[in-house]
């Protein structure tokens, strides 16, 4: 009687699948770690498309806070940004 471990005196071609299975397991674990643990607690889905420090609203707020623009200019530019970016609940 032939068994899988002793097929014509050798392990047979199916033995090549074991390294492929282990490679898939290692790649899966590394991918899982990269998507969760190594990225921090935020996770891959919480990426901010526009960093808050570089957003137009943040720049406008900093310019107003530093006194570069007055209140009227701030509200005018804010309304333009609201129209351009479609921000909901903005000042109008």
Overview in brief:
With 92 residues, the protein is an all-alpha fold. The protein has helices spanning 17-35, 56-66, 71-85.
SSE order and pairing:
Elements: H1 17-35, H2 56-66, H3 71-85
Main sheet overview? none
User: Which H/E pattern describes the elements?
Assistant: HHH
Task: Give me the secondary-structure category.
Answer: mainly alpha
Query: What share of the residues lie within helices?
Result: 40-55%
Rg of Cα set: 29 Å
Q: What is the number of E strands?
A: 0
Shape: rod-shaped
Distance between the termini: 85 Å
Q: What is the count of DSSP helices, taking H or I runs of 4+ residues? A: 3
Low-confidence runs: none
Overview of the molecule:
This protein is mainly α and 92 residues long. The chain is built from three helices and no strands. Helix 2 (56-66) runs antiparallel to helix 3. It is rod-shaped.
Characteristic terms for this protein:
92 residues; mainly alpha; 0% strand; 3 helices
């Amino acid at each position: 009687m032939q068994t899988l471990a002793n097929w014509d005196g050798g392990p047979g071609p199916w033995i090549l699948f074991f390294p492929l299975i282990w490679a898939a397991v290692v790649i899966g674990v590394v991918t899982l770690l990269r998507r969760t643990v190594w990225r921090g607690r935020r996770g891959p889905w919480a990426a901010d498309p526009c960093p808050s420090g570089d957003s137009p609203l943040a720049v406008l707020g900093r310019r107003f806070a530093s006194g570069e623009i007055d209140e009227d200019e701030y509200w005018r530019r804010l309304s333009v940004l609201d129209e351009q970016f479609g921000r909901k609940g903005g000042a109008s």
